[in-house]
Amino acid sequence: MSSEVDVKLIKELRTKTNAGVLDCKNALIESKSNIKEAIQILRKKGIAEASKKMGRSAKEGIIYAYVHPGSQKAGVVELNCETDFVARTDEFQNLAKEIAMQIVANNPISVDRESVPEEILKEEKSIYEEQVKRMNKPEKIQENIIANKLEKFYHEVVLLEQKYYREPSITIGDLIKEKIAVIGENILVSKFQRFQVGE
Question: Which of 49, 75, 142, 161 could hold 132 in an S-S bridge, CB 3.0 to 4.6 Å?
Fold first, then answer.
């Protein structure tokens, strides 16, 4: 496999991904100079490295409020990182804005599945149980149907599992991991609130 890579391609890949020169070169070698594939390679590598940072303490950050045009809906999010320096960067502030916009657009009810209120979960389960009872299927199949419906429910209402409104091929959790890879610090959503006139 040739280790020669066009410098222009490395520059283009760096511009698109913010990755280091060596990482870009290696990704282009691995993808045989295919920019699209190289981006995917870097994305996967970045997410793997970001996962290692996700256990680190994140006590700094910002509270960001986004008011939707027309002033009928708003989203407020507390986004945390490890240092005050990162909290002030455009990259971090833009991420907070995107998450606040996601909250307005998709109305999540919790940050992660562990914090979905128990009473909501019980209600959903009882609805699914009633639905499958009418299907006259074996018990094991009923359990699988309920489990699949619950998974779908989590993907719809849990912020980190929702599809990113700008790029539905990734979730908000994926978006945050990508930013961790670029910024180099752990990032987490502590809490959020959605407001709508009349609600």
Answer: 142
| Mean pLDDT along residues 85-106 | 95
> Topology of domain 60-111+158-196, per CATH?
Tetrahydropterin Synthase; Chain A (3.30.479)
Query: What ranges do the domains of the chain cover?
Result: 7-53, 60-111+158-196, 117-156
Judged on CB neighbours under 10 Å (0-12, 13-18, 19+), 163 is middle
Top-confidence residue, 130 or 176: 176
Q: What is the DSSP letter of 69?
A: T
Name the burial class of residue 146, with classes exposed (0-12), middle (13-18) and buried (19+) by CB atoms within 10 angstroms of its CB.
middle
Alpha-carbon distance of 133 to 136, in angstroms, equals 6
Architecture in CATH for domain 7-53: Orthogonal Bundle (1.10)
Per-residue pLDDT tens over the stretch 140-161: 888 888 889 999 999 999 999 9
What are the residues whose beta carbons fall under 8 Å from the beta carbon of 96, sequence distance 6 or more?
Answer: 62, 64, 77, 79
Widest distance between CA atoms in the chain: 64
Spatial separation of the C-alpha atoms in residues 195 and 104, rounded to whole Å: 8
Which residues lie across from 67 on neighbouring strands? Answer: 74
Strands 60-67 and 73-81, sheet pairing: antiparallel
